[in-house]
Specification:
Blueprint (H helix, E strand, L loop, with lengths): L3 H19 L1 H13 L8 H7 L3 E2 L2 E3 L2 E8 L7 H10 L5 E5 L13 H6 L3 E6 L13 H15 L4 E5 H13 L8 E5 L5 H12 L3 H15 L8 H5 L7 E5 L8 H10 L4 E4 L10 H13 L7 E2 L18 H5 L10
Helix pairs in contact: 1-2, 2-9, 6-7
């Protein structure tokens, strides 16, 4: 039976390849535009009701409005009082929340209440093209810049809680922050390890030609000054031994394969990896929520977990022999169902 989604993706890829055949650079630009354009935002009623309980702390980011939500454990507050208290009052630390591709901040409706009950404030946001933020393209370097701007505006977050794409951005953000602005603890759920894995799955799903893919990667280099291989969360994590981290991942995750979690864990010294059986990619079960709260609020790790010694260092050029990299993607070891 024909999979309509696969057929649509292949049709899009064929169109991009046709453009690339006659105009390679235009084809590369089109391939990246399709890749970086989020799906149309859809906020369900239960998510909208939760978001209505927040104070809106929106601001302009790179010429687009960024929707930012604040919840206070000390009752309602104005924008000005939030900005003052979050920066100046150490008794009111906050947790920064970052979700995955295609979601909205209503995704945190089960996570925010227990954090507030514990006396913590909460900040969440909709990245560009998501939720209530302005439309536009969204990619990893922008996610890092966005999260860094949030930290500079609202002060150091005591804890980071991230999921999928947003959580992957948090690794890059922590790596870019000075030590004094880094969080005390982080919890990352269903996070990818290496940007090349994402692009490999995208290329495979659309059937992009070598010419198209090459021009797309050249465009990324022109825009960022970095090769695709440099967007490697695991190798960034190898330098974050000062950050206690709990990684949560379902071994049967069909969106971001479990191999991503294993690779991040092996590189990140001192990190803990919890296998959340049957929790799916969304990881919003009551069990996972409780585990996240125990870790962030009290520093209590779940059982059983595996502990990382951080054997695989960022400078270790033999990592390809030990950890899933491109040759594993080609054999389906790190596949993704997002484009399936």
């Amino acid at each position: 039976m024909i999979n309509p989604k696969k057929l649509l993706l292949r049709s899009i890829g064929a169109g991009i390849n046709l453009v690339s055949f006659f105009a390679p650079r235009a084809g590369g630009r089109l391939a990246f535009r399709v890749f970086a354009t989020p799906p149309k935002p859809r906020i369900r009623d239960k998510e909208a009701k939760f978001l209505e309980t927040a104070s809106r702390l929106d601001f302009d980011f790179e010429e687009k409005r960024l929707a930012v939500y604040g919840w206070s454990s000390y009752g309602e507050f104005s924008r000005d009082s939030w900005l003052q208290s979050s920066k100046a009052d150490d008794r009111r630390p906050y947790v920064l929340l970052a979700y995955g591709w295609g979601y909205n901040a209503g995704r945190w409706r089960y996570f925010a209440p227990p954090l507030l009950e514990a006396g913590l404030n909460v900040i969440a946001y909709d990245p560009r093209g998501h939720g209530n933020s302005d439309p536009g393209q969204m990619e990893y370097p922008m996610m890092v810049r966005m999260q860094t701007e949030l930290i500079h505006r609202f002060g150091r977050a005591k804890y980071f809680l991230g999921h999928s794409f947003g959580g992957g951005g948090m690794i890059g953000t922590i790596g870019a922050l000075p030590i004094e602005l880094r969080p005390d603890r982080v919890c990352l759920m269903g996070v990818f390890s290496d940007a090349r894995w994402i692009f490999h799955n995208y290329r495979k799903a659309l059937g992009l030609s070598s010419r198209t893919y090459l021009e797309m990667t050249r465009l990324i280099y022109q825009r960022t000054g970095r090769r695709l291989s440099s967007f490697d969360n695991a190798r960034i994590a190898a330098r974050l031994s000062d950050i206690p981290a709990l990684l949560i991942h379902d071994p049967d995750d069909d969106i971001t394969s479990f191999s991503n979690a294993i690779r991040n864990h092996r590189y990140w010294p001192g990190s803990l990896l919890y296998r959340a059986e049957k929790a799916g990619h969304h990881l919003s079960t009551a069990e996972v929520t409780k585990i996240v709260m125990n870790w962030l609020i009290q520093g209590i790790a779940p059982e059983p977990v595996t502990h990382s010694s951080g054997f695989y260092q960022a400078e270790h050029e033999l990592h390809a022999y030990f950890i899933p990299v491109e040759q594993d993607w080609l054999h389906g070891e790190m596949r993704s169902g997002y484009y399936a």
